[in-house]
Design goal:
- Residues 170-271 form the HTH araC/xylS-type domain.
- With 281 residues, this protein is of the alpha+beta class.
- The protein folds into two domains: 3-160, no CATH class; 167-273, Orthogonal Bundle (Arc Repressor Mutant, subunit A), CATH 1.10.10.
- The protein contains twelve helices and eight strands.
- The chain has helices at residues 3-8, 108-111, 126-129, 131-142, 147-160, 167-181, 189-192, 199-209, 214-232, 238-244, 250-261, 265-273, and strands spanning 28-33, 42-51, 57-62, 69-73, 76-80, 87-92, 94-102, 122-124.
- The strands form two sheets. It has a six-stranded antiparallel β-sheet with strand order 1-2-7-4-5-8.
- Helix 9 crosses helix 12 (265-273).
- The protein is globular.
Length: 281
């Protein structure tokens, strides 16, 4: 990894959590931070790849981040808005899915309208770039032999569509980093005052730039970490996890976790210990 990209890992606005279950089973995921010229708006590039024996199918379940992704799957280029619910992708045979993860708030300058309009939706890239440019983008990526080549092509096309600067993106990023990294933040009011905004102003800012509320972002980041620690077997008891992640009420944590993941923390940890895929839908 070059120096520019190493530096970007220290400015993360999303974690590397979110894949449910035990990692490294049936598929591989690689991530590369965006180069310095794109890092103001783009968090990273990612590649999921697999090569399974005939007849074997493997589900990959994701609890989405508060980010828009540009995704290329089986030759189709798409824009995926923030997903509120977990979703499962089933791998079979050999294949790969490549994506560009924008920073929370980083897609609005490309879109030019509230990102909340994309929340929960997947649209063809042609809707934004036009059929010709979207087709060239997908075709150029299809010819790439590896992740380095995919990243180079993706960044070249993104720069060709690079938008004018928007200072509000950096402001959103500062708030998101606090929600992600600061354990003293347990409610939205903990950050709104810190950044000189009322809770309502922060809510409006996130609706326009992120597509979901700051409360949703905070909860999602905490649940990402809880699921990762339970899967790794490094969590201690789920009650300890709840307390460390800022939940004052264990029943509240269990309810949020179960709603998001589809299993109780105890059942999820047990499934991961047995290397079973913990969710199927």
């Amino acid at each position: 990894m070059d120096g520019d990209r190493l530096g970007q890992t220290r400015q993360q606005t999303t974690s590397e959590y979110g894949l449910l279950g035990v990692r490294g089973v049936d598929f591989r995921i690689d991530r590369v931070p965006a180069s310095a010229g794109l890092a103001a708006l783009v968090e990273r590039h990612w590649l999921v790849s697999w090569d399974l024996p005939e007849g074997r199918r493997a589900p990959v379940t994701l609890l989405p981040h508060p980010c828009v992704n540009l995704i290329v799957d089986r030759g189709q280029a798409m824009i995926g808005g923030v997903g509120r619910e977990r979703f499962t992708y089933e791998c079979a045979g050999s294949g790969r899915v490549f994506g560009v993860k924008f920073r929370p708030g980083g897609f609005l300058p490309f879109l030019g309208q509230p990102v909340s309009q994309l929340t929960g939706e997947v649209r063809p890239l042609a809707w934004l770039w036009g059929a010709a440019d979207a087709g060239r983008f997908a075709a150029d990526l299809a010819a790439c032999p590896d992740l380095d080549a995919l990243v180079d092509v993706a960044e070249r096309h993104l720069l060709a569509h690079w938008p004018a600067p928007d200072p509000e993106v950096a402001r959103v990023g500062e708030v998101v980093r606090a929600l992600l990294h600061d354990r003293s933040v347990t409610r939205v009011s903990d950050v709104s005052g810190r950044f000189g905004m009322s809770p309502r102003s922060l809510q409006r800012l996130f609706e326009r730039y992120v597509g979901v509320s700051p409360k949703w972002v905070l909860q999602r980041y905490r649940l990402h970490e809880a699921a990762a620690r339970l899967a790794e077997g490094t969590a201690g008891t789920w009650g300890e996890v709840a307390a460390e992640l800022g939940y004052f009420d264990q029943s509240h944590f269990i309810r949020d976790f179960t709603r998001a993941v589809g299993m109780t923390p105890v059942a999820y940890a047990d499934a991961c210990t047995r290397h079973q895929h913990p969710v199927t839908t």
